Amino acid sequence: MEKERKKDRKVLWIIVAALVMLVALFWIFWTPGYNWHLHSYHELDDQPYGADLTYAYLSSLRDSEEFVQLDSTIGANLQPYIDSAVVDHNYMLFGYMPLLDSLSREHLFRFVEQGNAMHLYTGAVPAHLLEEWHQGECILYEEEPYFDWNGILQVEEDQGAFVDSLVHINLLHPDLRFEEDIAFGHYVKDRLVRYRWPYLDSTYFCAENTSLTALGTIGDHVNFFRVPHGEGYFYVHTTPKLLTNYYLIQDTGRRYADGVFAHLAPGPILWDQKRWKMQMDAASYADRYAQQEGPLTYLISQESLRWMLYLLFAMVVILFVFGTRRKQRPIPVIRPKENSSLEYVDTISELYFAQSGDGRIFKYLSEQFQFFIRNRYRIQFKWHDEQTWGILSKASGIPLSHIKSMTSTYTKGSYEPNVTSDLLTDYYRTLDYFYTNCK
Fold this sequence. Notes:
Blueprint: H1 2-29, H2 52-60, E1 67-70, H3 74-78, E2 90-94, H4 102-113, E3 117-121, H5 127-133, E4 161-164, E5 166-171, E6 182-185, E7 187-188, E8 191-192, E9 195-198, E10 213-218, E11 221-229, E12 232-237, H6 245-248, H7 251-261, E13 269-272, H8 282-288, H9 295-301, H10 303-322, H11 341-354, H12 358-377, H13 386-396, H14 400-415, H15 421-437
Parallel strand pairs: 1-13, 2-3, 2-13, 3-12
Antiparallel strand pairs: 4-9, 5-6, 5-10, 7-8, 10-11, 11-12
Helix pairs in contact: 1-10, 12-15, 14-15
């Protein structure tokens, strides 16, 4: 027995050591993977579709005193620059378009009107800005493209967006235009997946409406345009995704960014670092574009997690090979006890019948009846005492006439040397009635 305990302890220590080794290997080789579903557009985010390289690129274009970070509302940020001699400044909104209150909208237009540039690289344009810019001379559709309550285009493919995995981009300025369109894809790791690419609908471009100037295209649509206002301009880019980290590390992406940012005014850059972000996490984004991966796919894609699965599988195989052998002596089969009560009753009945034992059965039934009366009602029953009969009738709820009949039958049987079967049967029935109906 002691030997078996030592063996069990040894196996336990082996399992503990294997688990410790597994945790150590996981700790050494595990590296957090990139989040390909998150589009934060934040200047400190180094994920594929973050903007830390975008931020570094823009800050490198100006001296430190000419690159200003602002973190309040648009109205508060622009307050110091309103009604002053400030011109040729660039206000940069990169990522998600915020909701504009009346003060922010007023300051935004006044800032541009006095000779500055507002760069909205936000993926969507608020409807009230489009209404301000669009003079309404040319309408190519029966209705304006639909915008939801916060001015962001619908998720589904419509007049203002299309869904594809690969797009072709170009700039329209003669000095910036590429000889051939640049192909950009939406990648999740090394896979091309479908993505919703917004653009400004062609409703806003026609010969009669000269307020909007196209600066760049995505396929056959405009994704980069300029709107004059007073002495300055609004610059709107509907696909800021193309200016994030993943594309800036590529040569074509860097060339495209050079062309887009060539439209900056010569003055300082005001970077709005407030996180104007939609409430959509990575899981929601994956659901939105139907690109969810199974948990096993993710585990296998990570080298450290893949080795953890291999080790776990090997341990399970070893356990099945060496640990399934029985370590306990076989348990003997114990036959269940047989209930022979019915056979016993049949045997005793046959003995009584063979020995003409009706009298003994009659006596046995009488003794059991008296025992029942004493045990339930605490009455010392006497067969020939009529007073006792009345007490028993009240206690049990059995009519006195039945008790008299029962005692009469008892008197007959107790004085006869040979009790007949008919008498025994009548006596049994009277007793059975009492047992069945008594309180």
